Amino acid sequence: MLRPGETITAIKAAFRAEKAGALVRLAKDVGRVGEKAGTRGALDTLRIAQGPKDVARAARLAESKGGQTRAILKTLGRGALLLATGAFNLTMWVFGALLALFGFLSSIKATTERATEAWLRRKKARRLRQQAAACLPSGPALAGAVAQG
User: From CA 99, how far away is CA 69, in angstroms rounded?
Assistant: First the structure.
């Protein structure tokens, strides 16, 4: 059994200014779990959680799943708390992959457009050279006209 003086000192140490914010957040998270999943859900969360971050994850889970939270915690255990982080990481990876795919397809499109434009310019220049060659008189006639001139 503790002496009253030691108990007061222990309580004061627990409620230092730096730690008070974290304790308040923890209490709010436990309260959110209790509101959405019930008292047993809050107790299950405290049993499974290894720190305040786990309790915060459980609070987000309780807000999204409501009464199913306790069943999810019973079935998946601590994995249910880590599942949200994994889902977020997976979502960010997929989003990054989609952006990379979009960039790749955009570069292919631009390359194809440039190659097509160059091909059309060469084709048009060749056609114009052929038309100009067809309109000019032949070589010996041209040489005679120059000699007369």
Answer: 34
Domain membership flag for residue 117:
no
Tell the residue number behind the tokens 């989609």, with chain if given.
Answer: 98
pLDDT of residue 13: 64
Q: pTM of the predicted model, to two decimals? A: 0.43
The whole-number average pLDDT for the span 112-116 is 97
Specify the DSSP element, H or E, that contains 86. helix 78-135
- Residue 76's domain spans which residues? 4-111
List C-alpha distances in Å: 51 to 26, 28, 58. Answer: 9, 14, 11
In a domain, 138, yes or no: no
Residues 6+ apart with CB under 8 A from 14: 23
Q: d(Cα 104, Cα 96) in Å, to the nearest integer?
A: 12
